[in-house]
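Reopening this ticket.

The earlier resolution said the output was attached, but the attachment link was broken on my side. Pasting everything inline this time so it's all in one place.
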Amino acid sequence: MRLPLLALLTRGPAHGYELKQDLEKLLGAAYPQPNVGQIYVTLGRLEKAGLIEGEDVEQSGRPNKRTYLLTAAGREAVLAWFEETADEPRVRDEFFMKLALASESGLADAVALINRQRRQYLNTMRELSRLAATEERDNRLSHLLIEGAMLHLQADLDWLERCQEELE
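Inline output:
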């Protein structure tokens, strides 16, 4: 959450609830909705780290709100983040660990685990398909997110088939 918030602040000052709304609008319903409490905790940490500066803004008839502005160090952190590649090999997959230990423990059947996981992936695929049909058509980023998740799920389903073939 830290770096996406910093990236949003490159546009200019904003308050926490505004950042939450911007993330929701940008990413759409497929992406887990950010918790406003977590956003404010993260903003506090970013401020302590010197990556943003907060300023209280008076509002008539309402409590003051705190807006945040990106510092030079925060801008450098965002630039460095954009330069990094996302390297997330799935060699530490929890399902695979269960599958590997099923026969060792004698407490689970590998094929039953595969079938249960397959059902989960198919249910998730259906939910994403439904979401894609109802998501605003003009939110291209949200549709790309949904499409990417569905492609990953299809690859996971293919991999489950391969696991089942190998273990039978």
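Reporter confirms the inline version is readable. The mean pLDDT is 89. The chain has seven helices and three strands.
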